[in-house]
Write a structure and sequence with these properties.
With 275 residues, this protein is α/β, with parallel strands linked by helices. It is built from seven helices and 15 strands. It folds into two domains: 3-162, Rossmann fold; 172-272, OB fold (Dihydrolipoamide Acetyltransferase, E2P). The longest helix is centred in the middle third of the chain and has 19 residues, at 115-133. The protein has helices spanning 11-24, 37-47, 63-71, 99-102, 115-133, 149-162, 214-220; strands at 3-7, 29-34, 51-55, 86-91, 107-110, 172-177, 180-185, 191-194, 199-202, 207-210, 226-230, 233-236, 240-245, 251-255, 261-263. The chain has a five-stranded parallel sheet, with helices on both faces. The protein has a five-stranded antiparallel sheet with strand order 10-9-8-12-11, with no helix packed on it. The protein has a three-stranded antiparallel sheet with strand order 13-14-15, with no helix packed on it. It is 28% helix and 27% strand.
Length: 275
Amino acid sequence: MTRALIADDERLMREQLRARLLEVWPELEVVAEAKNGKEAVALTEQHHPDIVFLDIRMPVLTGVDAARQIAQLPTFDEADGWPGCEIVFITAYDQYAVQAFEQGVVDYVLKPAERERLLVTVARIRQRMADRAAQAPNEAPPPLPAHTPDMQQLLQKLAGQLNPQGPAKLQWIQATVRQAIQMIPVEDVLFFVSDEKYTRVQTVTVEALIRKPIKELVEELDMRLFWQIHRSTLVNIKAVAGVSRDERGRQLVSVRGSNEKLEVSRSYTGLFKAM
């Protein structure tokens, strides 16, 4: 069965959406409900649903910030074969049903959930799930919306609408180079690669370290400039020279100005499907 999670701070709205989903998708199993974004992230990590319905405005953590964190949860490469999940935003505010929604970057449902509109969303999701299931074992599956640059850019746009007084995007990286602190312009960075404690900042001439994980950089950088290709890797789009495969079939990104090749995790291989 396809499994879903519903996150909304209003109990009646959760119940109404659950009832509507039962009408239009009887085979769907709602495995958990969350009252805020923080609960939604924790329950997603616990239950590994196929779909997460997120109210945009929730206490503790907004649905937009929850979506960002859910997109960073361990998937294929690091967890038990979980491919990640579809994201559907729930909103009572028409101003958040921006053009990017209609372009299919992510699905949305306006409160209260109407049966006809929910049918459209369900049809889109089922088609995407069918397309992924139909992929040959050696063929890169289409990436989930949460793992696409368009989605990352949409989440930044929505976050800016929800918090117009929020901080500006990073223009400089303050990093440790040997024993000194150096200011590195963001546009000079070829890629960021994280381990458990540090993130390596690589330019053509400098290799530096910062104590900031990739999931924080995704929120702070302008994601029109960087693509996430792995849970631990961001690459400057302008620095991508090409993509190849190694003997194990893994996609490797070649970067201008560096001899290093960056691995693309399975969750993101669909970004380079034509390669």
